[in-house]
Amino acid sequence: MNSTRENILRQLPEISKIRDADLREKVIAVWVDAVDSSEYSPDEVSSCPASLKLPPEVTLIEHTRAVAQTADFILTTFAAYRTKSPVIDRDTLLAGALLHDVGKLLEYCREDGRWQVSHLGTLMRHPTIGALLAARYRLPAEVVEMVALHSYEGEKSNRSSAAKVLIHADLAHFEPFL
Description:
Elements: H1 3-11, H2 21-37, H3 60-81, H4 90-99, H5 104-107, E1 108-111, E2 114-117, H6 119-123, H7 126-136, H8 141-149, H9 161-172
Antiparallel strand pairs: 1-2
């Protein structure tokens, strides 16, 4: 096992909750590719910020874990109350939640000790970068859609129910810090 893969699995234990082995491996492959394509060593990934608008101690890894756990909790709550909830596949939602911000590894860079938007990040934001990575590894269209549309890029799109859950989970761990 390579060190990038080991680090991703250690830092994002929620990946192990994806029951579908093929989907789980594709999620890992996207993270490994993003890390290997970024300026970060596998050990430095944990220092990437969740957002340049948030305090630096709110990291991408921490945010990703919180979003995945929150999205999963929302599905658990739907099931507990047996509401007329939409049918959302848990593995698909977890994959989307775990990948929603993976593009930030390429959107952000550190120059002169400061985090800033990279050259690629000036051309496209993390939802597009992440969706391209997810599509490269042939993740299901539903996962690619969640990654692509989870931010304001998706405001005029017809988002799936899973994408709507992801947006709320994402905002729950973003907006309170602003």
